[in-house]
Amino acid sequence: MNKSSHYDYIIIGAGAAGLMLADAMLKDDFFSGKSILLLDKDSKQTNDRTWCYWEKGVGQFDAIVHKKWNAIYFSGKKFSKRYAIHPYTYKMIRGIDFYNFVFENIKVHQNLYFKQTKVTDVIDIGEGVKVVTANENYIAGKVFNSVFDYGMATHQNKYPVLQQHFVGWFVKTQKSVFDPAQATYMDFSIPQKNNTRFMYVLPTSETEALVEYTLFSENLLQKDEYENAIKDYLKKDLACFDYEIVETEIGSIPMTCYDFQEHHTKNLRYIGTAGGWAKPSTGYTFASTARKIPVLLEHIKTEKPLDNLSFKNRFWRYDLLFLDVLYKDNANGHNIFESLFKNRHPQLIFKFLDERTSIWEDIKYIWACPKKPFIKALLSRLF
Known about the structure:
Layout: E1 4-12, H1 16-26, E2 36-40, E3 50-56, E4 67-69, E5 71-75, E6 80-84, E7 88-94, H2 95-107, E8 112-116, E9 119-124, E10 129-133, E11 137-145, H3 151-154, E12 161-173, E13 182-187, E14 196-205, E15 208-217, H4 223-237, E16 243-256, E17 268-270, H5 286-302, H6 314-328, H7 333-343, H8 346-353, H9 359-367, H10 371-382
Parallel strand pairs: 1-2, 1-11, 2-8, 5-13, 11-17
Antiparallel strand pairs: 3-7, 4-7, 5-6, 9-10, 10-11, 12-15, 12-16, 13-14, 14-15
């Protein structure tokens, strides 16, 4: 191969966004004669993450869904309840199953090439984009980059930047501990320590579950603080003293309404978390990405500049107010969620977070939130 190999398209990062885009391109006849290069520093052969989302009925990834729940549990400081969530189902996909699923499709197409290498620079050179790696340089007409760095968002102060950060343990217990029929969506009964902190529990059987300590806050913790919180929760809340840690996961997802538009060019588009596709108010990314990929695909086919496409809508403004409130008083997060789940059904909450509600439903949702902090945030943005 030459020092600067040429492709029609390059996708940087084989995570959810990169692989969804690659898979969508391979299934569309428009791209059948196009050369596509997929780059990632990892081989994508390990189970390095878990994605969860809610959905009505059968979805495009049901073949690889590892576990489904028809009920969720919410717990606050003063209120807790189990909810049936029909017509929604809460679904879990393991990273390794998703990678294998998409790479099996990649194998049968001759026009997509995967290379395991680290990208060190990406430069729009006018007539295309140059991608620099440790071993070779590549040039493509259009490049899609899903590699995120917090500096992309934190260089500005117009929009707050929080993180959804977590450590999760997949545990196997000696006795029956978990209810595999329900997912613990948020458990705020744990000490908040002036942050928004909750436990997230996804049981796959009575003796197996992902137990995750999650925060919506500005700064990360020391690793042992996450782990000690999980230990305490297993012991004090679940009366579980004898367990094995089968796998672990750790992560941080940006929560910001900064729209990343300044990073795009006519030939370079940031996608996934790097493109601001994580839902700002929740950090949920998988379903949000799945909805945006078809829109991006149609835009690519028009051959218009990549920086012309915008996903901003009225829900962006709702998310901005929420993050303003959470950023100003991070200890207040549990009150917001407790008020929502106490006064509204999860079906409306899910529909709102999916950005599918009507204006009237928006008002119903917003009216369930504590009024004073949101009014103050609105006035602050207006004036």
